[in-house]
Amino acid sequence: MKKLFILVVFALGFGYSSGLSAQNYSSAVGIRLGVPWSISYKMFISDLAAIEVYGSFRSNRATVSGLDAGWTSIGINGAYLIHNEFSNTEGLTWYYGGGGSVYFWSYADLYTGTRGNVTFGVSGYLGLDYKFGNAPVNISVDWVPTFYIGSALGGFGAGQGALAVRYVLGE
User: Fold this and answer.
1) pTM exceeds cut of 0.85
2) Which among 19, 44, 164, 169 would be 20 to 30 A from 151, CA to CA?
3) CATH code for 2-170?
């Protein structure tokens, strides 16, 4: 635990001590093509720090013998991300950060009817972000390991992440 704490302090210190200006746009809106697909909004709050929020909707419903079966989920995620430039490539940054999520679930099955649930998540972020020089387009790819708390999903999910494509609103 002590080693993890030292690693986190070092990483945060490195991110804040970098004299490079990683920001090459101020905000962007688009989609995250991952699990689940989401609508994304990203806004820089300083030269290195950004906030990203995204929302998702997933459904797997069917009607069996006239009865509703399946599930529906609505998710809201937020993240605080620290960006750092690569010295050789204009417009390319790498980032890390943390965030949280909440998912609202609705289940329907043939035997117990419809019921709901809420799941919370605590996430880490590690990714690459690229802003095309002459076009108002930003893309990013990230890995988002998440620890879920709740009975709909519970435990650690290491397979989360997405490819995001966004339209740059301000530079």
Assistant:
1) no
2) 164
3) 2.40.160.20
